[in-house]
């Protein structure tokens, strides 16, 4: 089912609105660097205009039912203006990467206007070597980073010749905004539907008690594990301080081949290697701050998609949250990697992901006041020290208006009392890290960025040594 006028926000999506504050913006996005020359701005806007029908929610805004009778709804914005959302700017000479990252930091320091569709796209010209960039910024309630369907995605092509998506010349007529009475009625209808869903669930439980008992026990075990995590909060670190509204952003380039070689040498997953590299970089950074790491294990919030096959291609969020280990107390890089592998295997076998999904599902039946509290539980800052999200991307080049996308850097968000978020994406043989930090809490974010490269280089060296030792063993006479 596509996105409709009058759709209510899901519980998870509404929770991202509830969590947003003056210093914790809930938008995410990406920075893409492309080969030059940049296309004409009007032509690019026309290309976007011809593809907006693929993501209709990008022409919709929020409408809130009166008297707190329900979650907000998506409605067509009758005054939608594409040129308000797509903005053109240019870097001053020499157009360095540092200047581009500084611009990204400033753009992501500003909250989105909730009276309009919740997204912006910046076309940045003037980069060195004739290149240009696209900076996308979308509220988390509109799109998640795992489903991969947003305006930037539909803008990209697999071929230098832009594909025909059938939207060129299609006129868009917004549907009338609902009146206050209509919004109130829809909110009340939502409560009635909630009651019917609960009744249907009760009837199903009566008809199939064995399913209810089995599923209920599994769900209780999962919620119990999350309750234990809440009672055992993440340790205090220099990352977990009150933050302001201003951001720093840096990008780090790596090769996917290096991650795969480490994975093969030590029998882990690529995601295990990513977490081990992040843990090693954090360990070095903490030491540079004079923080002792003996016995210290940081916890990462690792978003996991719980979309079914039927959900693919739909906007909105279907996420569960798992706690990934960051064992900064381990000095040896290989031992650290194996500790991550063991812990992640245990998490996958536990009921933690099930419990997170149960909390997400329970929120679907919650009125907004309860939802706001539930969202703080599901993404409680007590549970984790930082966000680490790893998104697989296409392993072939993408194009925008015939220009090849050279680099992609993902950008996450900072919840309250979280000074750092790390997002990772693989694209066309690269694994690029996007580090978003609080301006004041992380003046030394470049130390972390350099540490990521150093840690991967060290694991790659040790993987080479292991392979060489294995080859010598195989070649030795019996």
From TrEMBL:
It is an enzyme of class 2 (transferase). The keyword Transferase applies. GO terms for biological process: biological process involved in interaction with host; glycerol metabolic process; response to hypoxia; response to nitric oxide; triglyceride biosynthetic process. InterPro entries: Acyl_transf_WS/DGAT (IPR014292), O-acyltransferase_WSD1-like (IPR045034), O-acyltransferase_WSD1_C (IPR009721), O-acyltransferase_WSD1_N (IPR004255). GO terms for cellular component: plasma membrane. It catalyses: an acyl-CoA + a 1,2-diacyl-sn-glycerol = a triacyl-sn-glycerol + CoA. Pathway: Glycerolipid metabolism; triacylglycerol biosynthesis; Lipid metabolism. Residues 316-459 form the O-acyltransferase WSD1 C-terminal domain. Keywords: Acyltransferase, Glycerol metabolism, Lipid biosynthesis, Lipid metabolism, Transferase. Residues 9-274 form the O-acyltransferase WSD1-like N-terminal domain. One of its GO terms (molecular function) is diacylglycerol O-acyltransferase activity. Its EC number is 2.3.1.20. Belongs to the long-chain O-acyltransferase family. This is Diacylglycerol O-acyltransferase.
């Amino acid at each position: 089912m596509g996105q409709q006028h009058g759709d209510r926000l899901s519980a998870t999506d509404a929770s991202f609105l509830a969590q947003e504050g003056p210093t914790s913006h809930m938008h995410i996005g990406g920075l893409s660097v492309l080969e030059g020359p940049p296309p004409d701005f009007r032509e690019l806007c026309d290309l976007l205009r011809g593809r907006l029908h693929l993501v209709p929610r990008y022409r919709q805004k929020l409408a809130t039912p009166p008297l707190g009778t329900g979650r907000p709804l998506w409605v067509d914005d009758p005054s939608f203006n594409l040129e308000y959302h797509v903005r053109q700017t240019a870097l001053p000479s020499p157009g360095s990467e540092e200047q581009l990252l500084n611009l990204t930091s400033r753009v992501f320091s500003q909250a989105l206007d909730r009276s309009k569709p919740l997204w912006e796209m910046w076309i940045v010209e003037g980069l060195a070597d004739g290149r240009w960039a696209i900076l996308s910024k979308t509220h988390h309630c509109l799109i998640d980073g795992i489903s991969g369907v947003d305006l930037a995605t539909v803008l990209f092509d697999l071929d230098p010749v832009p594909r025909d998506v059938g939207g060129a010349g299609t006129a868009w007529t917004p549907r009338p905004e609902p009146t206050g009475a209509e919004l109130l009625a829809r909110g009340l209808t939502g409560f009635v539907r909630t009651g019917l869903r609960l009744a249907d669930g009760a009837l199903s439980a009566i008809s199939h008690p064995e399913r209810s008992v089995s599923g209920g026990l599994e769900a209780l075990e999962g919620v119990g594990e999350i309750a234990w995590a809440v009672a055992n909060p993440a340790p205090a670190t220099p990352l977990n301080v009150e933050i302001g509204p201003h951001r720093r952003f840096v990008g780090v380039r790596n090769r996917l081949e290096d991650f795969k070689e480490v994975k093969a040498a030590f029998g882990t997953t690529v995601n295990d290697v990513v977490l081990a590299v992040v843990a090693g970089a954090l360990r070095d950074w903490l030491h540079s701050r004079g923080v002792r790491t003996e016995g210290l294990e940081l916890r990462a919030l690792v978003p996991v998609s719980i979309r079914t096959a039927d959900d693919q291609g739909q906007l909105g969020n279907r996420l569960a949250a798992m706690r990934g280990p960051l064992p900064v107390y381990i000095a040896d890089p290989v031992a650290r990697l194996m500790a991550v592998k063991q812990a992640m295997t245990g998490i996958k076998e536990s009921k933690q992901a099930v419990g997170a999904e149960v909390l997400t599902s329970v929120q679907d039946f919650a009125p907004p006041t309860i939802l706001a509290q539930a969202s703080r539980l599901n993404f409680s800052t007590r549970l984790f020290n930082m966000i680490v999200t790893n998104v697989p991307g296409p392993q072939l080049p993408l194009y925008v208006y015939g220009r090849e996308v050279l680099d992609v850097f993902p950008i996450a968000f900072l919840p309250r009392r979280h000074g750092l978020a790390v997002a990772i994406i693989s694209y066309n043989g690269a694994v690029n890290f996007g580090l978003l930090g609080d301006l004041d809490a992380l003046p030394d974010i470049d130390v972390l960025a350099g540490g990521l490269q150093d840690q991967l280089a060290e694991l790659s060296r040790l993987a080479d040594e292991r392979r060489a030792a294995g080859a010598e063993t195989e070649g030795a006479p019996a």
